[in-house]
Amino acid sequence: MQVEPGTADRLDHQRVMWLNQANTARRTSDEIYASALLGCLQMLRSGTTAVMDHFPEQQFGVEDVAAVVRAYEDCGMRAVVALRIFDGEYSDIMPQGSAATPELLSAIDKSNPLRPRPLEETLDVCRESITRFDRHQDRIRVFTAPSNPVRCSDALLVACQELAQAHDGGVHCHLLETQAQVDIARRLYGRSVVEHLVDLGCMDQRWSCAHCNWVTVNDMALMGARGAIAVLNPESNLKIGSGIPPVPDLLANGVVCALGTDGVITNDNLILQEAMQLTAMLHRAGEADRGRWTTVEQVIDMATVGGAKAMLEPELGRIAPGQRADLVLYDLSAPWWIPLNSPEQQFVFGERGSSVRTAIVDGRVVLDEDGVVGVDEAAVLEEARAILGASQRRNSDILEIADRFA
Questions:
Q1: Most exposed of 62, 116, 180, 294 (fewest Cβ within 10 Å)?
Q2: CA distances from 218 to 188, 197, 225, 373 (A)
Q3: Peptide bond preceding 116 in cis form (omega within 30 of 0)
Q4: In a domain, 158, yes or no
């Protein structure tokens, strides 16, 4: 999604999702590589050294996975490539009621890039990708990543859990981003999706769950007891109006939290600093008890240790003996750092990543004063400029579907 900044505003979840398909479907391997590398440049320059990339969305092959893995290899980042899979309908973004006109339904039937493929075919792609790329260069993992449990069969969800256990890996999913997903889960299972996943033997410490805006108190208690991780994406959620994660309640129920930016179409940037600031503040106006306000120390912990737990990397997230040397150096001469009254508060509330000068991954400098080491940044930017236009021309049929949702 890295070439999509500035493409979506004041749009609901349905239209954003269809517009994203028009912008990203049917990519070539070279386009996937250039787009992923563009994201790497932004993350490293703003202080992120490791990422869980929920990739991609449409039906994909092993060579598509190879392209995004190559981008992380070449830039030196640490990454989990979380393979976004499903074998059911994206019912939460399909037209409902009077919006489900025969013309729109016919267009979707003809050009839907999110048409599910057979379960075994999907799992075969995952197995081969894990075999070829998991633990590559000792800094790239490959996890299965059911797009959203309500879009997946029980068999697929259980298979993801089994693959994670077999390879000592993880499972990543989108969880209860919108109210519509709550309603669909109730219709499908007669209970919450979290309760259903627990009964399937899933939703344990191997699971990281993006969004978690509409989790119930019981959902949070189950996640806390089983060690599942909530990955909060507050900036994306606020931009499209999908919800607000209940941060104080998640923490009160013992849920480990990590932070994300979500994709560029719903956020316009991959700057984790902005997620840190919003996570610290977004609940405060509605919470009279200041003792429940999230502290900057908690937010920094989410961005470091919490992220490491989501990636199943216990040797990341802290500066301590025995930890991997993934470090970022900030120049404290910027105005927002002067005077230096509280490094923690100024890091969360003042810094936006522009003070980053050096990034180190596994003891190797991957960003210095000249930019990302070993990457021709100008060439990447030039190639990336052409991708969106080419995608929209190629996917004019899908773009028409997105426009109909307007």
A1: 62
A2: 18, 13, 11, 47
A3: no
A4: yes
